[in-house]
Amino acid sequence: MSELTMTAVTTESALHFVTPPPGLSPLTEFALSAVTDELYSLRAVDADGVRLFLLDPRPFFPDYAPRVSEEVLAELGTSDPAVLVVVRPGEGEAPTANLLAPVLVDLETGAALQTILENSDQPLRAPLPR
User: Fold this and answer.
1) pTM: predicted TM-score of the whole model, two decimal places
2) DSSP line for 3-20
3) For FRET with 79, which of 37, 70, 108, 110 sits at 20 to 30 Å CA-CA?
4) 88-121 burial: b if 16+ Cβ within 10 Å, else e
């Protein structure tokens, strides 16, 4: 298992998921664009209306350091991916971040994947600190 360092995503990117994100099969082509310095919009290229929000977890969860298997990193093709987490907007509630299943991005190639952390007690819906 490798503990990942956090790398910032700074530009708009075309992402190719090496395996479709959970619940979005067969989609693999996405456009990632910044909404703010920490928040990103991930839109499916081939399916209008499919959009997720991703968050740079560093400002909100400074101790978050996901441990990812060497096999996952090999599938992605990098040992130093950017780490983002899916955010569920708060509909009358505080927004939450999925810390159990981070999205890993190779910023050089645009390869991406969402992985579920094994043997982790990270929450599926961590409230964002205010």
Assistant:
1) 0.89
2) EPPP----S-EEEEESSP
3) 37
4) beeeeeebbbbbbbbbbbbbeeebbbbbebeeee
